[in-house]
Write a structure and sequence with these properties.
Number of strands: 9
Helix content: 40-55%
Shape: elongated
Largest sheet: 5 strands, mixed
Number of helices: 15
Low-confidence stretches: 87-93
Oligomer: single chain
Mean pLDDT: 84
């Protein structure tokens, strides 16, 4: 609720009480959040100083330390954001003195001058000096320095001073350019290079950036990018068809130096939807409650496997759409194990359905539904009858019985695509989006904390969505990080990967 000072004298007592009550609720919520973050900050600091005594390998300790650096900076930024609207008293922030950038690095001067140097009094201003700020840029393998020179212009008559304003930056008063920040994020979350490896790579390029500094950059970027990820999630939830899947990721428990199994959930708009986007959600468990929380009030067609965690959703109005590829996989494994004739026959019949799907992939939804009804439905009806007959002939508990039971038990969900051209035949689309995560976790070893896992999920959501739309993740993130500080909240959707246009093309 936004109330101007001019409105207050004209408000009734009831309206004023409502305003005061709303403000008290806002202040109470903010203070509770600040207290929570402050406690988390203290715990992270304690973990950081205790890390040396934990029972970790050298590589594990390095990954833990960089995670803690990221988390500490992220928590600090979130506290600062909450306090910024409350006009707190100025605070002295102790920071180590920044070392000057090496003189041997190539430099590019970028001059910023006022649009006009004529004073309001009519006199021509005189240049009296300049401010210089250096920012570190990076192109793969090569560092360079941007020297931003801001001339100072003064009017001798009226003593007016003007200077070009400092451009807003994703990290206020930081030295990295958005290109360097994008490089660090892409290397960590797309190329799966931990920060200690990036530190070594940068060292070979001429400037070893401490992993604690890199961690602080990643933490700050994660906080700044989160509203964009929230907007991406909201966009996906506008669609009637959503794919869902999950994959295990190890998460560290710093207290005992061990890891436990956490899960990265993935959600994407239907493969036939116009929006090409995926959002990852890092959770500490595989409990179905995680999917329930993510989807909220959404009611549509959910393409998923037979995992029990999704079943609660189906009792609350969500329509289950099965994955024919999962059913086929049961017979494929059976045939690979013992050359089962039943499995071979099932694979042939399911293969004919997939042949049709490849033909109609680019058709509109009405035409796709018509062909499915004419050609695919008779094939699947015959397959169902065949499965029922053969199930009567096989012994309970055998591998063949289990393969047949899986399809028969889920037949309604597996064939739901026949009556709706917008529905896919399987869940392969989301499995393709989760595959890079499965590959990357071999290099991660683990997620260092819940906050780190969620931050990684957020950044990877933007990177993978950019890839889905044919964008270079580096170019996308560099442009977004440049524009985000000045982008209006009401226009943040313009920066979503499926709507993004480079600055040069944006209207």
């Amino acid at each position: 609720m936004v109330i101007s000072s001019e409105q207050l004298p004209h408000m009734s007592a009831d309206e004023l009480r409502e305003v005061v009550q709303s403000l008290l609720q806002t202040v109470t919520f903010k203070q509770a959040t600040i207290d929570k973050l402050t406690l988390e900050n203290a715990m992270l600091k304690r973990l950081k100083f205790a890390a040396q005594s934990e029972r970790f390998s050298a590589e594990q300790r390095s990954l833990l330390e960089e995670t803690l650096d990221e988390d500490l900076q992220a928590v600090s930024d979130e506290i600062e954001q909450l306090q910024s609207t409350d006009a707190p008293a100025p605070r002295v922030k102790e920071q180590p003195k920044r070392q000057p950038l090496p003189a041997n690095l190539p430099r590019v001067e970028i001059h910023h001058e006022p649009d006009a140097t004529t004073c309001a009094c009519g006199c021509q201003m005189r240049r009296i000096g300049e401010d210089v700020a250096e920012k570190l840029d990076y192109q793969p393998g090569v560092f360079s320095v941007e020297r931003h020179v801001r001339g100072k212009w003064a009017c001798a008559k009226c003593e007016t001073l003007i200077q070009a304003p400092v451009d807003a930056h994703i990290i206020d008063k930081g030295i990295p350019t958005t290109g360097l920040l994008a490089q660090v994020l892409v290397a960590k979350f797309a190329d799966h290079l931990p920060l200690y490896r990036q530190e070594a790579i940068f060292g070979r390029a001429g400037l070893a950036i401490a992993r604690s500094t890199l961690g602080a950059w990643v933490g700050s970027c994660g906080v700044q990018l989160q509203p964009l990820v929230d907007a991406l999630k909201a966009d996906i939830l506008q669609h009637s068809v959503i794919h869902a899947d999950e994959t295990p990721v190890q998460m560290l428990k710093p207290g005992n130096g061990k890891t436990h199994r956490a899960y990265l959930w993935a959600y994407a708009a239907g493969v036939f939807e116009d929006t090409k986007a995926v959002v990852y959600d890092f959770c500490e468990s595989r409990a179905g409650e995680n999917a329930k929380v993510f989807l909220g009030d959404w009611r549509g067609s959910l393409v998923c496997d037979d995992f029990s965690g999704y079943k609660q959703l189906m009792t609350q109005g969500v329509t289950e759409v099965g994955c024919l590829a999962h059913a086929r996989r049961k017979f494929f494994d059976l045939h690979a194990a013992n050359q089962s004739q039943i499995a071979h026959s099932a694979l042939e019949q399911i293969g004919r359905v997939y042949d049709i799907e490849r033909e109609i992939k680019e058709f509109n939804l009405d035409e796709r539904r018509r062909i499915r009804q004419e050609r695919s439905k008779p094939l699947l009806d015959a397959l169902h009858q065949w499965m029922v007959l053969n199930r009567q002939k096989v012994t309970d508990g055998t591998a063949t019985a289990k393969a047949l039971d899986y399809s028969l038990r889920r037949w309604g969900a597996l064939t739901r695509f026949l009556s709706d051209g917008q529905l896919p035949v399987d869940n392969n689309h989301i499995e393709n989006q989760i595959r890079p995560i499965a590959i990357g976790r071999n290099n991660w070893l683990f997620a260092g904390s819940l906050r780190a896992g969620k931050r990684g999920a957020a950044v990877m959501s933007l990177i993978q969505s950019a890839r889905l739309n044919g964008h270079d993740p580096y170019a996308y993130l560099k442009d977004v990080l440049t524009r985000l500080p000045t982008q209006r909240a009401s226009q943040i959707h313009e920066l979503l990967p499926h709507r993004w246009q480079p600055q040069s093309q944006a209207i």
